[in-house]
Amino acid sequence: MGQRIRTAREEIGLSAEEFAHRLGRASRKWTWEIETGKKVLDVTDLAQVARLLGRPITWLLTGALEEPAQQPRPIRTVVRELLARYETLEFAEVPVLGAMPSEKELAEEQGAEDWLQVPRHLIGEARRPFALKIEGESLAGLGIHEGDSVVVDPDAPLAEAKVYAVRIGSEVTAKRLYREGSRLRLVGPGGAYEVLAAHRVQTLGRVILAGHWEQL
């Protein structure tokens, strides 16, 4: 997969450093690690890489450009299978506690603005997940778009290069976090970053899911 990423990156004229910055990483070392197989992409990163390169995820994973040809199936059969799959899903009700980016205080769970219905398997073992509505396109570089809702796990431990909902001063926003001793490097969309003392950053939780989810 690493060689395919490198080939596609070079085809669209991106240097290793620019590629890393477009994906919110601080240096070309990250590009080198994924192109040489030293680092494995998680699902979120894989989707962002595919979007930036303009290639389907299946091509990144397998090199296949198209799905094998299949005989068309009756629409009734397809609908019946989809309904059966939906009925077996378990859903979690996730409270919407505010918006992002925003300078408003987050609500308590009992004062939630709305509740989202999210497939339980998508939030894993998160015990106290909450959601934030996305306003504007300032977070698009992190794969988070206007109209999305992000699901946040407030109990997730700090992991390098993952996206977190944070409060800096009065603003709630999303950043990739990196530890630098007693400080945190916060990388935003496009690779712009700032380094702050850890006590100046309130980590609200790790963003574990972003997308459109049904409101209850």
Cα-based radius of gyration, to the nearest Å: 19 Å
Largest sheet: 10 strands, mixed
Instruction: Give me the CATH fold name of the largest domain.
Output: Umud Fragment, subunit A
The SSE string, one letter per element, is HHHHHHEEEEEEEEEE
Which consecutive residue ranges, at least 5 long each, have pLDDT under 50?
Answer: none
Residue share in helix: 25-40%
- Under CATH at level 1, the class of the largest domain stands as Mainly Beta
**What structural class is derived from the secondary structure elements?**
alpha+beta
> What percentage of the residues does DSSP assign to strands (E)?
25-35%
Please state how the strands of the largest beta sheet are arranged side by side. Answer: 8-7-6-5-9-4-3-1-2-10
Specify the number of helices.
6
Walk me through this protein's architecture.
The protein has 216 residues and is of the alpha+beta class. It has two domains: 2-62, 434 Repressor (Amino-terminal Domain) (Orthogonal Bundle), CATH 1.10.260; 91-215, Ribbon (Umud Fragment, subunit A). 25% of the residues lie in helices and 30% in strands. The protein has six helices and ten strands; from the N terminus they run ααααααββββββββββ. The chain has helices at residues 2-11, 16-22, 28-35, 43-53, 57-62, 75-87, and strands at residues 91-100, 114-119, 130-134, 149-153, 163-168, 171-180, 183-187, 193-197, 201-211, 214-215. A ten-stranded mixed sheet has the order 8-7-6-5-9-4-3-1-2-10, with no helix packed on it. Helix 2 (16-22) packs across helix 3 (28-35). The longest helix has 13 residues, at 75-87. The radius of gyration is 19 Å and the shape is flat. The termini are far apart. The mean pLDDT is 84.
